[in-house]
Write a structure and sequence with these properties.
By secondary structure, the chain is of the alpha/beta class. The protein is built from eleven helices and 14 strands.
């Protein structure tokens, strides 16, 4: 054992040396080097953690997974955290858990409605459809790009059972109003917090208000495991149900590699199974296998320690870009933080005004040509996407602003890999572009 520890230390020292060599080659050349919209920010600590886990060769959930779940729920002050293999799977688990018979009168059934927006990433809406619920789309506000919360209550029907919304680009939606309506009518609230880790609303972290919240650790997000996600909840029953759906639908809650946690493994009766049937092979839900690997979690443990600094960098970068582009409000609608919020911004959205002498395509092509990566606001208007043709949904009112986003909005990065030098170059590229159109 002592010899193995010494060998591991040698390996970790070599990893540190390799990382330092790679780091030396990273320089920024304006107009030549690309400025991504997002990316992985890591050092030797993540690599050492990953290799340490691989040397254990546990592979499935293990000590690093347990450590991450423990630290993550402590960071956000939530009772329960369950890791999964992606943020998309986290969303699927949230919606699927609501179909459980264990929820009794609060169980969702096919045909029930879920309030959401069409200006979204597909995997916020897809689980609604996959579970045979009906998405009800409400339009968004310009500047915040979140749901028009004052329309939620007016959009309810007898079939409405849940509200499932993302904090768009890290900017919190009106949680206070969503929770008020939910409490009044007995609705479930799920926060898609995949783009908003570190954001706050009323001085409290987003992802901690609703009955459940999903998180993503994809490389573009606030921290990464490569692939990976999590579901958080304060509800013990929901936590058990989510775990079951994640772990093949089994009734047992033993951790991997452990047996008989309940102390009654061979002393219970389930359904039509014979008395004493092994509890580890009793299935109470129609579930999936959406578990994370311990190597992914190992990266996450190192990343989580850096989260406060990542959050500060995103806020700083957003503010610097905002200051640099504010003089161009004649051409763009600039983003605004939601009331009572402190966003940890996922990106910097810009909506080209219809009165501008140029189009979104004009500015996007100019930025891309100058090595500044851009993105659309995900699916734009999902009802216009090929995948949703023929899908049953309801639109409450119209989607005028959603269509405006689909046609006129793009965003650029604010992630911690972008420095003041990058931002100065970005502002310069915008300035050169605007000069072409002044006076037209």
């Amino acid at each position: 054992m002592l010899q193995e520890k010494k060998l591991r230390k040698k390996i970790f020292k070599a990893i540190t040396d390799i990382y330092k060599i790679r780091k030396k080659g990273c320089k920024f050349y304006p107009g030549v080097s690309e400025i991504p919209y997002a990316g992985r920010i890591y050092d030797e600590k993540e690599i050492i953690s990953l290799v340490d886990s691989s040397l254990d060769f546990w592979l499935t959930q293990g000590r690093y997974s347990n450590e991450f779940e423990r630290n993550f729920k402590k960071y956000l002050n939530v009772k329960n955290c369950l890791l999964t293999n992606s943020g998309s799977s986290a969303n699927l688990l949230c919606l699927s858990s609501l179909t459980s018979h264990k929820l009794k009168t609060r169980q969702l059934l096919p045909g029930d409605e879920v309030i959401t927006t069409a200006c979204a990433f597909p995997t916020t809406v897809n689980p609604i459809i996959q579970n045979k619920f009906i998405p009800v789309f409400i339009d968004i506000n310009k500047e915040t790009y979140n749901i028009q919360a004052d329309k939620i209550e007016k959009s309810l029907s007898k079939k409405t059972k849940a509200i499932f919304l993302a904090h768009t680009m890290g900017n919190p939606f009106d949680i206070e109003e969503a929770m008020r309506v939910a409490d009044k009518y007995g609705l479930w609230v799920i926060e898609d917090n995949c783009d908003a880790l570190g954001s706050k609303y009323n001085s409290k972290y987003t992802g901690t208000f609703g009955h459940m919240a999903s998180f993503s650790f994809y490389p573009a997000h606030h921290i990464t495991m490569g692939e990976g996600g999590a579901v958080l909840t304060n509800d013990a029953l929901l936590n058990r149900i989510i775990m079951s759906y994640r772990d093949w639908g089994r009734d047992c809650w033993c951790q991997a590699g452990h047996d008989n946690t309940c102390g009654k493994r061979f002393a219970q009766k389930f359904g039509s199974l014979p008395f004493g049937y092994d509890h580890k092979y009793v299935y109470s839900q129609i579930g999936y296998n959406l578990k994370v690997t311990d190597m992914q979690a190992a990266i996450g443990v190192a990343q989580l320690e850096k989260l406060p600094g990542f959050t500060e960098a995103r806020i700083r970068n957003f503010n610097l870009i905002y200051s640099g582009l504010k003089k161009y409000e004649r051409y763009f609608i600039l983003p605004q933080a939601a009331k009572n919020s402190e966003p940890s911004w996922f990106g910097f959205p810009l909506l080209v005004k219809s009165s501008a002498q140029f189009t979104r395509a004009d500015i996007v092509l100019h930025l891309e040509k100058n090595k500044i990566a851009t993105r659309m606001l995900f699916g734009g208007n999902l009802t216009k996407q090929p995948a949703y043709q023929g899908v049953k949904f309801r639109i409450a009112g119209d989607l005028r602003n959603t269509d405006l986003v689909m046609n006129n909005l793009f965003w650029i990065g604010v992630y911690p890999g972008i420095s003041k030098v990058h931002i100065s170059y970005i502002i310069c590229v915008f300035e050169k572009f605007i000069k072409q159109y002044r006076g037209l």
